[in-house]
Amino acid sequence: MAQHDDASTPGSSIERHTESSPGTAVVTADAAQNPGFPPHEPRVTDVDPKADKKAERQVTTLFFLSLVGSIFAVAAYIAFPIVPGDLGSVRLNTALVGTGIALALLGIGFGTVHWAKALMRDTELVEQRHPTRGTEETRAKAVEVFTLGNQESGIGRRALIRNSLIGAAAVAPLPAVALFRDLAPAEDPNALLKHTLWEEGVRLTRDPDGSPIRAADVTIGSVFHVIPEGIREEEEYLEEKAKAAVLLVRLNPGDLNELPERASWSYDGIVAYSKICTHVGCPVALYEQRTHHLLCPCHQSEFDIANHAAVIFGPAARPLPQLPIAVDDEGYLIAQSDFTEPVGPSFWERERA
Question: By residue range, what is the domain housing residue 17?
Answer without folding.
Answer: 1-36
